[in-house]
Amino acid sequence: MNIVEEYFDRVRQLFENIADAQAERYEEHLLSAMRGNLRIRLRFSDNALLEISEAIVLVSGELHWLSYRYHYQDSSAGLVFRYDNTPHHPEIATHPDHKHSRDQILACVHPSIEQLLEEVRTFRERIS
User: Fold this and answer.
1) Residue 2 has what DSSP assignment?
2) Separation between Cα atoms, residue 47 and residue 21, nearest integer Å
3) Most C-beta atoms within 10 A of its C-beta, which of 29, 82, 86, 90?
């Protein structure tokens, strides 16, 4: 098993342990030993939605994200947050990495899947 496959396994295990949600889409594409794509669409019982899209590549033994998008919306389909590295906000100090919230664009570093899931969990606990 290579590093990209190990990453996919770790993500899969994390998502298997999320209560109160069902995967509407879960796609792993191992394009080569050094490159892969991941797409996940997770629907919560209250109709909130978490979408993940990643294109990753292995460089010098480390994973790098060519592109990523982590979109979380509430049960009314309103944006809670979205992290991405689309280079459309050059004014942000962490360009191209940034975070969209309901009403602003924030500088941020690329969050790990674990950090992302913790932010979703914290938000869900706060509103319940």
Assistant:
1) -
2) 9
3) 82
Report the distance separating Cα 109 and Cα 87, nearest Å: 14
> Cα separation of 21 and 45, whole Å?
6
- Global confidence as pTM: 0.95
Cross-strand partners of 68: 54
Which residues in the chain show pLDDT less than 70? Answer: none
Could you tell me the two tokens for 82?
A: 């979205």
What pLDDT is stored for residue 123 in this prediction? 96
| DSSP letter assigned to residue 61 | T
- CA-derived radius of gyration, the chain: 15
* Beta-carbon contacts of residue 46 (< 8 Å; ≥ 6 apart): 75
CB 15 within 8 A of CB 42: yes
- Helices (H), ranges, the chain: 3-16, 113-127
Residues 28, 40 contacting (CB under 8 angstroms): no
